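Researcher: Quick one. two chains, 807 residues in total.
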Amino acid sequence: MEATLKIQRFNPDTDEKPYWAEYQVEVEPTDRLLDALHLVKWYEDGTLAFRRSCAHGVCGSDALTINSVNRLACKVLMRDLGSTVTVEPLRGFPIVKDLVVDMEPFFEKYRSVKPYFVTYDPDPPVERYQSQEDRAKFDDTTKCILCGACTSSCPSFWGNRDYVGPAAIVQAHRFIFDSRDQGANERLEILNDRDGVWRCRTIFNCVGACPREIDVTRAIGEVKKLLLFNRMV
Amino acid sequence: MYHSYDALIVGAGGAGLRAALELGQVGSVAVLSKLYPTRSHTGAAQGGIGAALGNTEEDLAEWHAFDTVKGGDYLVDQDAAEAMCQEAIEIVYELEHWGLPFDRTPDGKIAQRPFGGHTHHFGQGPVRRSCYAADRTGHMILQTMFQQCVRHNVRFFDEYHVLDLLVQDGVACGVTAYQILTGEIHTFRAKTILFATGGMGRMFKITSNAHALSGDGPAIALRRGVPMEDMEFFQFHPTGIYKMGILITEAVRGEGGILLNNDGERFMERYSPTLLDLAPRDIVSRAIYLEVQDGKGIDGKDYVHLGASHLGREVVEAKLPDISDFCLTYLGIDPAVQPMPVQPTAHYSMGGIPTDIEGRVVIDEKNTLMPGFYSAGECACVSVHGANRLGTNSLVDILVFGRRAGRDMARYIRENDFVPLPSEPECDACDEVEHLLSSSGDESVADIREDLQATMMDNIGVFRIESQMQAAVDKVHELQERYRRAGIQDRGKTFNTDLLEAIELGYLLDLAEVTAESALARTESRGAHSREDYPDRDDENWLKHTLAYRTESGVQLKYKPVTITSFEPKPRTY
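Model:
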């Protein structure tokens, strides 16, 4: 099938502002959008810049705004995108070049929520035991690949870049609800803030954007509930 | 720009990050990666990490070591395998202590399941040894390692592409790297350097490997005079998604999935009566190839079916959620209902930068060290995988030898001072970059790469024969010649991935050359190196490791003995 890619281009060395460029590509309906971007880059315009690595939805490099929705370019097929596909860099992050954005502010938020296992008891000689039920409580949020699709889709984040954002809350949730972890109160302290969970207005964009199908708004809601009704001590 | 660290780690997958965690207390350490660390391909590993915990049935590290040696068709250095399998146990407990969310048994222990080639009582039958978190074990390991690095404030240089290894009087003393954001070349001085850059599967057309896996570390080492060990042994994983190469984990078969030909026959019964579908990967890949050759591929095509629907939706969704997602996304197939179309996919390089058991790089058949230089993970060859790696052993390898390398680097840092850098340390890297940026050549990087990938797939694949391997050698030489006339379009400074793809292609070409030459020279069949013209293993002449050097007059091959401790080589049947 023939498809038109309408790609937002910007080179900071030569362009004053972003512009749209169109490319015709001949693709298989089952090709990924990433395959189509490669056709442009490899055979038409080598200056096109985008990130990618694994090409099957697990590394999180190629989150883009595709037909106005945030997805991974390697996890959406051309047949599902129509004959004209608009491709933009993730919204809300500074553009570096073409489809590449500066992810540093995103990772800074990530680091701010203590996204690591905290215990104060000594380690046992073998594994800590955990029931299957306790393990299931945080399973959903362990799937996050830090692609940024959720945070970049969030109107609350667009409105206020200080908002810690859904991805960082997902990462905090993964530890707060892990029965083995002892750092929940420290993280709740961080998230109990105007720019923490309370900035979330349950708009649900993040849920639609997540390529790992994490129920992000639910995870944020669970953190809010814990803060309101059942603070861990 | 100039930087100085006691320890410099190139690559932020499992091996690099695990090493970094050993070094923070000892000296200054930096990790540089051409990706953000969480994009590393460790995250794509699915099925599990092998360790004889014995959580659901009796298991011993000795059995694990035996399976590793036999799985590697006796080309494994047995002292290294024994150490790895012993340390695997504490490595898994360590992961759990760092919070890794393993699946659990009903009584709360780490869950374990069977995997290809892993047996109890030295080959009597399958054993549950693979510790897992659904089919995203690698993702969990990468996340856990990165989390610990964040916790310990490890210094990262994200999106820095390594260009060169600096060596002065035979001592490794730094690297140069290209900052992707700015196009600036940075010089890093270091007492110790660890290359943990991962695989090189992108030299093949059908591969499970990420685009980033272009063998940067090994190729740079090769250009600096370090030989590549056992490059002829490249693993084809039997179950890649048809045409795409995306990995479908062996855990499907570990959970009870079976391979079927066009007649609906479970053909592994004929090839491996004891382990059936859980035979090691080289054996299963050959079986699929032979079925296809025999006209028993599905609808006469070059793939077979992997059936999991008989396991029931509950098992498929709970234990194999990601591969279900891949099949639905890319094929529109629900594995709980329909079989998956699979074919062998280029997956893992058993060969690489030769190291000893502490991760120290050795540069000849007498195991002479290159002081200061270390390597771990897929880019290294210890050798614990020999001629064929067992499933789950790559995750064991990266963590055990990442840790060992880190510990020995800590010792080296305490005992040694910095050595002076060569004069104008960045000039070789600058020349390479300048050559590409200013080239008026009309050869396309994409075309050369496509030719390379097709050549390697067709001629250095599951089965090999002299005429085809010779054709591959000749073709790679022709492509290297064309590569000298390669031109690129992007001549800018900012995020110039056009330039980087050209540099990566240069790496792949050099590694493909030593791979093809090493394969051509080895006149026997062993593990993943299976020759139609020499179908038998030949211990008398070939129980030895290949060392391939890059010289002015082409590739030069030397050999070194295999370390044998407990397990005398025997015929390999399953």
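Chain A touches chain B through 61 residues (CB under 8 Å).
Researcher: Thanks, that's what I needed.
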